[in-house]
Amino acid sequence: MRRLVGIDEAGRGALAGPVVAAAVIFPTARKHSKIKDSKQMRVKDRLHQACFIRESAHAWSIAMASVNEIDQLNIHHASLLAMKRAVELLGTLADFAVVDGKYYPKIKVPGEALIKGDSLIAEISAASILAKTARDALMIKLGSRYPGYGLGQHKGYPTKFHLARLLKIGVSPCHRRSYGPVARLLDQSAVAPPDPIR
What we know:
The chain is of the alpha/beta class. It has one domain (4-144): Nucleotidyltransferase, domain 5 (2-Layer Sandwich), CATH 3.30.420. The protein is 43% helix and 15% strand. The termini are far apart.
C-alpha cells in the first residue's frame, strides 16, 4: 500500500509571526470524517482533532520559516521552505506527497500540488490542522511578548484593530517588514520629522 504524506501551511497572509507547515502520514488510507480543512472548523474542534492526529498518525511533524526568512525570501519561497523542513523532520520517507496549493516544495518525495487539496485529501487536512493550531499557539505567546497588538486574538492577520495598533504603537520585531502595511509604516516613520519639543 502506498504511503501518502499530506503537507500544508498556515500564516501566509499574516502581517506578523512565522509561516508554519506540517506534514502527516496516516497508517492506513481509511476515511477520517471529522478531519477537514482547518479553516472550516471551530477552534475547539481543531484542537480536539490536532490531539487525535498526533496520537493516530504514523508520523507527523511541524516546521516553520521565520519572519526574517519571509522578509529575505518572500512568503512564497518561505512557505515552500517550511514545507520542506516539515517533510525532512518526519524521520521517514513517504511513497508519494500531496501538497495544498499550486506549488510543490523541493523534497525527495515524488508527488503533486493540489488546489483546495486541504478539502479533498485527509492527510492534507490533517496537516492544515496541525499547522494552524501550532501557529495559533505560537501567536498567543508572541501576543504576551509583544502586548498591545492583539496577536493572540487575530493571530497576526491584518484586522482593523491590528492595523490601528500598528499605527499607534509602531512595528514590533515579530512583524514582517516586507509586507505592504508594515513596509509603508516603516517608510513613513523613516521620513517623518522629529516631534517638536514641548
